[in-house]
Amino acid sequence: MASPSAFAAVAAAVVMMAAAAAALCFSAAAAASPVGGPHMADLSVLLPPRMTKPVEHRLIGFDGCFTWAWDHHDIISVKPEYNDSSRCSTSARLASIAPYSGRKETSVYATDIISGITIHCKVFVDRISRIRIFHHAVKIDLDEVATLRVHAFDDEDNVFSSLVGLQFLWQLTPRWVDTNSHHLVHIPLKETHLSDCSGFCGDMNIRFELEDRNLGSDLFVVKGIEIGQEVVNAQLFEPQFEHVNDTITLTVAEAMSLEPPSPVLVTVGAMVKFKLKVFRQKVPQLLTYHHSIIIGM
């Protein structure tokens, strides 16, 4: 029969093993969790090759102060961005600098100067196969401002992370060929809310420069000026890519609402009077005519 001291030794060993296992599980969970230490917003990035200008993308790191390194300096470049007050880098400008010669793969490394932890982001470079114009809706209100954005895809329908620096040609055409009256008008980026970039204006400055040269970028801002439909066309204006384009049709309609708002609960035989309210120049206006509905069985 084992002595009490032997039982105590076995119990102590079991407790130590359990504690070690718990510590191992905790450290593994912390390593797997992106909030457990330094991490990047992007695990991978897809960029087109250099065309007229390098294509740029902003890499953002969190929970650290980083130094940056990368493989294949002939494919990409990385320029750290610094906080003016602390000289701490939490982001960097990544640029695709090589012309197309087949799909490429490389990596960017960010090392936290405090913990010594190194995180990395894979970077793929490939050619654009097609583009699409995106907006959250195909209908916009009269006097409403809408931002259209070009998304690009490779041969496998992977979405490119950035198109900043690429040249586009945008065109507005009335839907009906028998009218020359436009329903949309282009608003320069500098005259929109997009010019407020909170100190990190690298992407927007590149887009501003393109518009200053009477070219377009991957962003295009329009405003509804007349009720009707307008065809919007975007063409990638880069050597050997002029055939890559996309078209959408936007409908401009007057913003309106009814008073009283729904739902309206009434009894049978009741008469409900509705008022039509429209919004012009962002100011609600009540129309002079009313409409009544009698609720039947």
Automatic annotation (TrEMBL):
Alphabetic keyword roster: Signal
Highest taxon of source: Eukaryota
Signal peptide boundaries: 1-32
Annotated NUP210 Ig-like domain residues: 43-126, 143-245
Residues spanning the membrane: none
Pfam families: Ig_NUP210_1st, Ig_NUP210_2nd
InterPro entries tied to this protein: Ig_NUP210_1st (IPR055096), Ig_NUP210_2nd (IPR055097), NUP210-like (IPR045197)
PANTHER family noted in UniProt: NUCLEAR PORE MEMBRANE GLYCOPROTEIN 210, NUCLEAR PORE MEMBRANE GLYCOPROTEIN GP210-RELATED
Protein name (Swiss-Prot/TrEMBL): Os09g0565450 protein
Species of origin: Oryza sativa subsp. japonica
